[in-house]
Amino acid sequence: VVDSILSLNNHQLLKEKNQANKQGIMVSESEITDLLTNESYNPHSVPQLEEHLMAQVRGEAPYMADSVRRLVKLYQLFPETSQPENIGRACLMAALEYPNTDHLALGYMVPPTIAATEPCATIQKCSSLLEACQFAQFWETYETLKSSNDAELSALATRSVPGVQKSILSALALSYKQAPTKTVCEALKVDKVDAVVALKYTEVVQSADANVVTFVPTVDNTKRERVYQENMDFASISTLMAKIAQ
After folding, report:
1. Please, which of 27, 67, 154, 196 could form a disulfide with 148 given CB 3.0 to 4.6 Å?
2. Distance between CA 99 and CA 93 in Å, rounded?
3. What's the chain's Rg over C-alpha atoms?
């Protein structure tokens, strides 16, 4: 009896998904927020989350990490609803949030069998290369995603190139106040400094010319001055060392 009930529920759920896909239901950000707050892990929310995922993939809605994670989690909990192509798209969206760790968090919910297949395997490699700051190798691997058989994923990868370049600039700015223009161009996979300027990323790039890219000074990329406290007598130092040794 229990198996029959589960079977009927699954059949109804799949029917709702098919109807939603045919109707092209558009859900608003407020509706998704309410769903995430009130629905918990309800498999009947899968169609709405899938529609919202596709809106994000197509650039029709801003990226929402909680919505993406909830969908992939529901796929994990209810495998009969799973759509491998949507998992790949979700993984790419999370990876594009570099240097945030969204992809790492999402990866724990992806079944190993799917993680080992394309496009998830290539997305994982891209994410690892970004984390290792191996930007030249990243761009070589990323080309595979831009030519993916999944037209939606291919379009997302192609459209997201400027965003990835800005993320890489942010990563460089964490370590360098200035960097050779050639090095920056190679990291961004561009030929000339004009392409760096064209990104208009003034929050990170202060100036750029044919020789040097200067980043906006921050606590991370600016050398800190050492502060010395003078007039420390031996008695004070010995008392301090005695307390540390206790």
Report:
1. 154
2. 13
3. 24
